Amino acid sequence: MEFGGLEKFTLIDYPGKIACVVYTIGCNFRCPYCHNPELVDETVETKIKESEVLDFLDKRKDLLDGVVITGGEPTMHGDDLLCFMAEIKNRGFLVKLDSNGTNPDVLREAIDKKIVDYIAMDIKSPLSKYERTVGRPVDALAIKKSIQIIMFSPVEYEFRTTIVKGMLSPEDIEEIAREIKGAKQYYLQKFVSTKILNPQFKKKVTYSEDELKAIQERISNDVAYCGIR
Ligand code: SF4
């Protein structure tokens, strides 16, 4: 595998852990608010070989708890991704995987092989509105399957939604919460308009803190924990 970036140190991307972040190249969605357009359209200039990442990890064994694999959409890399995750686990690191949930079989295999410790899955919109939100054809059943696989797995997880006012209504967010009913953790992520895929979204905003808190209150019975970040 090749990667579009390596962030050597983070305290915020893997909850409670000291980690590094690797960025996979390519994505099957085109979310207008995406912060990594060069990964999505595969125009990233400097690529990092898998062997370089593993060499880096060999030198960080006592300094890092885990590795966050994000993208792009990591699961598009199928078996290559699973082999890479196994290599990381062999070195004794925890693995957090970020995913848009379009490849439930890859998630299932990673869980069954015990090569993932934390999964963060983006929920883009209610299932009925996915294609409008992500700008690509979507297999809604695959998304639904990923949600079920993650929720009924022994792995730590979170679901999260980027909240853009005008793109998702409070009722849409309530519908999402019903579709992940019983989830352990769900985060409402404030949209930030720096460096995004679709320049027209520069003018978009998220909801105010009070509006987000009102939404949080409305969905509090559907999920065990709902956070705003
Ligand atoms: S936000 Fe995630 S799923 Fe959407 S285009 Fe960007 S990398 Fe792909």
Annotation keywords:
iron-sulfur; 229 residues; Anaerobic ribonucleoside-triphosphate reductase activating protein; alpha/beta; NrdG2; 9 strands; TIM Barrel; single chain; rSAM; binds iron/sulfur cluster; nine-stranded mixed β-sheet
Model description:
It is globular and about 45 Å long. The protein is of the alpha/beta class. It has one domain (2-228): TIM Barrel. Strands 3-1-2-4-5-6-7-8-9 form a nine-stranded mixed β-sheet. It has eight helices and nine strands. The longest helix is centred in the middle third of the chain and has 13 residues, at 78-90. The site of iron/sulfur cluster has 11 residues, from loops. Pfam families: Radical_SAM. One of its GO terms (molecular function) is metal ion binding. Its cofactor is [4Fe-4S] cluster. Residues 13-222 form the Radical SAM core domain. This is Anaerobic ribonucleoside-triphosphate reductase activating protein.
Summarize the structure.
By secondary structure, the protein is α/β, with parallel strands linked by helices. The protein has 8 helices and 9 strands. The protein has helices at 37-40, 50-58, 78-90, 104-112, 130-134, 140-151, 170-179, 209-218, and strands at 2-10, 19-24, 48-49, 66-70, 94-99, 118-122, 156-163, 186-190, 226-228.
Give the topology.
Layout: E1 2-10, E2 19-24, H1 37-40, E3 48-49, H2 50-58, E4 66-70, H3 78-90, E5 94-99, H4 104-112, E6 118-122, H5 130-134, H6 140-151, E7 156-163, H7 170-179, E8 186-190, H8 209-218, E9 226-228
Parallel strand pairs: 2-4, 4-5, 5-6, 6-7, 7-8, 8-9
Antiparallel strand pairs: 1-2, 1-3
Helix pairs in contact: 4-6
Residues 27, 29-31, 34, 36, 40, 71-73, 100 line the site of iron/sulfur cluster.
Pfam family, one: Radical_SAM
InterPro entries: Aldolase_TIM, NrdG2, Organic_radical-activating, rSAM, rSAM_sf
Domain Radical SAM core: 13-222
